[in-house]
Amino acid sequence: MSNGKNLNLTPQCAAGVDTRRRVIELEKNDEDQWDAINQLRNRLPVWATMIISLLTFLLGCSITYAAIAKGGS
Questions:
Q1: What is the extent of the structural domain holding 69?
Q2: Considering the entire predicted model, what is its pTM?
């Protein structure tokens, strides 16, 4: 044994081969699922994007109004 894992993973019968193949496929599907979940998790929510956009718009309006009120062109 190395690192606490059994190195002899070769199945001894046809049912074991099928089971091993299914386990490998399920593990890959699990990894794909977690990749998709992490991609969604790492994005900014739509509501936060909308708030940032609104704040940016209001900041632009405020700067424009301040420049006009100060007598700029």
A1: 45-73
A2: 0.44
Give yes or no for a contact between 54 and 43, defined as CB atoms under 8 angstroms apart: no
Write the pLDDT tens digit of every residue in 8-19.
566 678 778 888
DSSP 73: -
**Tens of pLDDT, residues 17-59:** 888 888 889 898 888 888 888 888 888 888 999 999 999 999 9
Residue 5 domain-assigned (yes or no): no
Q: Do 70 and 56 reside in the same domain of the chain?
A: yes
Does residue 1 form part of some domain? Answer: no
